[in-house]
Design goal:
Elements (H helix, E strand, L loop, with lengths): L14 H8 L3 H22 L10 H19 L4 H9 L6 H17 L3 H14 L4 H19 L11 H35 L17 H10 L2 H21 L2 H8 L6 H5 L3 E5 L7 E2 L5 E2 L13 E5 L6 H17 L1 H13 L14 E2 L11 H7 L9 E2 L3 H4 L35 H21 L1
Parallel strand pairs: 5-6
Antiparallel strand pairs: 1-4, 2-3
Length: 457
């Protein structure tokens, strides 16, 4: 992978210096931690009041498991499975109808894989057309979070914390993860939609799109049973393995992003979160006391948005990412009010990449209207939102970053041994699911880090 241009810019003050300066703010944050935990437990209990069972079929899962074991066994005996599949599935070559379908899907992938914004929209359209494609809605919400994280790098809070080179490299890391997952998963979704259109399975075409043979049994079983949970788990395992060597373990990103201390700043602050903003028919919000109330605007003064989600402890761990994805799925499709609230948000709030999408009372995409002093932490401790002219700068994605070209994607099949089957089990629903106040706490921590970095510059 070629090294990107790293424009000159202010150097970060160093994580050690920032943390040392932040010691002065610890007493103020301790109280916030206690309040956040208490409020999170109470709000999570309310979200869990109406639960539904996931449509997990253990017998189908065992069948898929056995089929994948058979693929691995045949591979270990020296058979080239890619050639075997091509020979068995296309004995007389592709039909003209197959070739048309392939070109249509390739063109659709190319058009939609332009940016995080286009990918996020494409996922939502798939789910809205075929609601049984649960994973597509999960991918839509996770992709929204990726866009927010990308824009954060150009936002007001990150300005003094990272050097320009660090921001550039971290953006490229996030963008490549987002683009590669889409490049692999979107053709699969389109192939299912086309199969529905023609009324017969077209999954024999999966190898043409370089999809791992791991996914073939999942799609064939889904075509027969429409088991959304099993397919979602298969896609979660597949996509996280897909980016493991191509991005997460790639030497380029390990040297410049994942092994750097600054990459762990968001983990410390609790912003390595996937959040699901919730809206209901009355745009209900939660007050700091935990009570619901209707509101005249989307984010009235003193209240914070209702946010569900989870915090990922270790992004560098493949198993942790798979477990995390499964827990997100269990939340999104196992809690009725959480799903309906997230769907309402997704359908009514366009994705711009700015955190003002879900918290306009705290963030602004307009730099001239943002807080210009180094007192973000103090301001946030005093109130749930910030008044106009003192909000945190959260740019829209297109204002923060231009289009990004990236190198060709390696096409080898990631499935090489039985570790591919790790995680093939029913998703478990975590007890804590509301992170409205936990998310605000993470923002406060980053705000204090911002203020500390400003003071040591």
């Amino acid at each position: 992978m070629s090294e990107p241009l790293q424009p000159d810019g202010p150097k970060s003050p160093g994580l050690g210096a920032v943390l040392k300066e932040m010691l002065f703010s610890l007493p103020s944050m301790v109280s916030e931690v206690v309040k956040s935990k208490t409020a999170g437990i109470a709000a999570s209990s309310r979200l869990r009041e109406e639960r539904v069972s996931l449509d997990w079929n253990e017998a189908s899962a065992r069948t898929v498991y056995t089929e994948i074991e058979d693929l691995l066994r045949r591979s270990s005996q020296g058979r080239n499975l890619d050639e075997h599949l091509a020979a068995s599935q296309f004995p007389d070559g592709l039909s003209s109808a197959d070739e048309v379908i392939i070109r249509e899907i390739e063109d659709a992938v190319s058009r939609s894989n332009v940016s995080n914004l286009t990918r996020t929209e494409a996922y939502l359209k798939c789910y809205q057309a075929y609601p049984e494609l649960h994973w597509s809605f999960l991918a839509h919400m996770v992709s929204r979070n990726a866009g927010w994280n990308m824009s954060d790098l150009r936002g007001g809070q990150m300005y003094p914390l990272l050097s320009e080179a660090s921001k550039e490299n971290t953006y490229r890391f996030l963008e490549r993860c987002n683009a590669l997952i889409f490049q692999d998963a979107y053709p699969q979704l389109l192939l299912y939609m086309k199969s529905r259109e023609v009324g017969s399975s077209l999954f024999y075409l999966l190898p043409h799109f370089h999809v791992s043979r791991f996914m073939q049994p999942f799609w064939e079983r889904f075509w027969l049973e429409r088991g959304s949970a099993l397919l979602a788990v298969g896609l979660i395992i597949n996509e996280q393995n897909y980016i493991e060597t191509r991005v997460v373990r790639h030497p380029y990103f390990q040297n410049r992003v994942t092994d750097k201390a600054n990459f762990h700043l968001h983990s410390w602050a609790g912003l390595n979160q996937i959040i699901f903003p919730l809206l209901d028919e009355e745009d209900a919000m939660i007050t700091p006391s935990g009570e619901r109330s209707s509101f005249e605007s989307r984010c009235p003064e003193g209240r914070i948005p209702r946010l569900a989600g989870r915090i990922l402890g270790d992004f560098s761990s493949l198993n942790a990412r798979i477990t995390f994805g499964k827990s997100l799925y269990a939340l999104l499709f196992g809690l009725t009010s959480l799903r309906s609230g997230t769907e309402a948000f997704a359908s009514r709030i366009p994705h711009t990449g700015s955190r003002a999408d879900y918290w306009p009372g705290l963030f602004t995409p307009n730099k001239e209207e943002a807080l210009s002093t180094g007192l973000e932490g103090t301001e946030l401790l005093e109130q749930g939102n910030l008044p106009a002219g003192k909000r945190l700068y959260a740019p829209q994605l297109l204002d923060a970053w231009g289009d990004t070209s990236y190198e060709p994607i390696s096409r080898e099949d990631w499935m090489q041994d039985h570790s591919a089957l790790d995680g093939l089990s029913k998703p478990q629903q975590p007890y804590l699911c509301d992170i409205s106040f936990e998310h605000r706490l993470g923002i406060i921590k980053t705000a204090f880090a911002h203020d500390a970095a400003d003071s040591v510059h």
